[in-house]
Design goal:
With 85 residues, the protein is mostly helical. It has helices spanning 2-18, 26-39, 44-71. It has a domain at 24-70. It is built from 3 helices and no strands.
């Protein structure tokens, strides 16, 4: 079990060191993931690495959605249909 955890930590550290650091979303995800990993069985580091990766992915996704909304022409939007009661 310790060998698997060590291997996972080594892979996670290598992946993080190879990519440039993007703090947007990573810090919040690392904090949440570290706490969750610690509570789930004293695997705080693995949780922090996973949280950082997922947090960065979600932040990037939200950023792309905001850019698409800003660049979308106003004529493409359909008017909202009224709700009949």
């Amino acid at each position: 079990m310790k060998a698997r955890l060590g291997f996972a930590m080594m892979i996670g550290t290598t992946l993080l060191a190879a990519a440039p650091a993007h703090a947007k979303g990573c810090i919040k995800g690392a904090v949440v993931g570290g706490i969750a990993g610690h509570v789930a069985g004293h695997h705080g580091f693995v949780g922090a690495v996973t949280g950082c990766v997922l947090g960065r992915r979600l932040a990037k996704k939200h950023e792309q959605e905001r850019e698409q909304e800003m660049h979308a022409p106003a004529g493409d939007q359909q008017p909202a249909t009224p709700v009949r009661r």
